[in-house]
């Protein structure tokens, strides 16, 4: 069967962009270079491709692999109604300089993301813990938007550029919009992980393609 570059990229995303892949190939990943099992099962390949299209659609916040028939509109992804992270009136993040948030925390008992004096509800624990390359996505995202963005001096210990001082002194509405987009994407990625793990297991247990010298 013909395989387009877009299909192959989607297959890679389905197989490798999930914790099951990292857990299964932990020893192999100690050395640089990804090792991807390539299924020889046409049906399984197509299933992985469809999963991967969904993953990349999420990773690009609805910009790529758009397909309305597959419920992938060209728009920021959203969790199903009733599960969407929300900011109630009492949790509004103030935009005045005096209230610029400097700390992000999580209340697991209420499944609430705390940002300064504001908060977001309906944030599952797995979303708070979501990591990429060993770094929590939410804390990393917040570190570039909080009040104090100082970074430790590294390398030759030159002082940081004064350009770093040019930054917002308040929390704009755009930050809140970005945060809600990110929370929805992470929640949807978490919901896909069991299916991705199942597909990876079936690929590894079934016939795979080798390499010819």
Please tag this protein with its features.
single chain, 213 residues, mainly alpha, three-stranded antiparallel beta sheet, two-stranded antiparallel sheet, 8% strand
Mind explaining what this structure looks like?
This protein is mainly alpha-helical and 213 residues long. The protein has 2 domains: 5-78 and 194-205, no CATH class; 89-187, no CATH class. Helices cover 38% and strands 8% of the residues. The chain has 6 helices and 5 strands, in the order αααβββαββαα. The protein has helices at residues 5-16, 19-24, 42-59, 125-129, 137-143, 173-205, and strands at residues 104-107, 112-115, 118-121, 131-132, 135-136. It has a 3-stranded antiparallel sheet with strand order 1-2-3, with no helix packed on it. A hairpin with a 4-residue loop joins strand 1 and strand 2 (112-115). Helix 1 (5-16) crosses helix 3 (42-59) and helix 3 runs antiparallel to helix 6. The radius of gyration is 20 Å and the shape is globular. The mean pLDDT is 92.
Total beta strands: 5
Uncertain spans? none
The quaternary structure here is: single chain
Mean pLDDT: 92
Shape assignment: globular
What level of helicity do the residues show? 25-40%
Percentage of residues in strands: 5-15%
Helix-strand makeup class: mainly alpha
What order do the strands of the largest sheet run in, or round the barrel if closed?
A: 1-2-3
Distance between the termini: 22 Å
Query: What number of domains?
Result: 2
How many H/I helical runs?
A: 6
Question: For the CA atoms, what is the radius of gyration?
Answer: 20 Å
* SSE order, one letter for each helix or strand: HHHEEEHEEHH
In this structure, how is the largest beta sheet organized? 3 strands, antiparallel
């Amino acid at each position: 069967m013909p395989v387009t570059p877009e299909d192959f990229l989607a297959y890679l995303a389905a197989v490798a962009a999930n914790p099951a892949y990292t857990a299964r190939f932990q020893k192999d990943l100690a050395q640089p270079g990804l090792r991807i099992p390539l299924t020889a099962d046409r049906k399984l390949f197509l299933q992985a491709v469809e999963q991967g299209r969904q993953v990349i659609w999420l990773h690009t916040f609805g910009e790529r692999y758009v397909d309305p028939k597959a419920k992938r509109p060209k728009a920021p992804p959203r969790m199903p109604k009733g599960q969407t992270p929300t900011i109630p009136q009492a949790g509004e993040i103030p935009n005045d300089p005096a209230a610029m948030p400097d700390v992000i925390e999580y209340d697991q008992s209420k499944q609430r993301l705390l940002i300064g004096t504001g908060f977001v509800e309906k944030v599952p624990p797995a979303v708070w813990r979501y990591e990429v390359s060993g770094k929590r996505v939410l804390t990393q995202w917040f570190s570039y938007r909080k009040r104090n963005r100082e970074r430790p001096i590294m390398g030759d210990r030159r002082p940081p550029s004064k350009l770093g001082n040019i930054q917002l002194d308040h929390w704009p509405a755009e930050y809140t919009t970005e945060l809600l987009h990110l929370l929805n994407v992470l929640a949807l990625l978490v919901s896909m992980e069991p299916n991705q793990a199942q597909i990876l297991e079936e690929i590894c247990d079934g016939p795979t393609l080798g390499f010819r010298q």
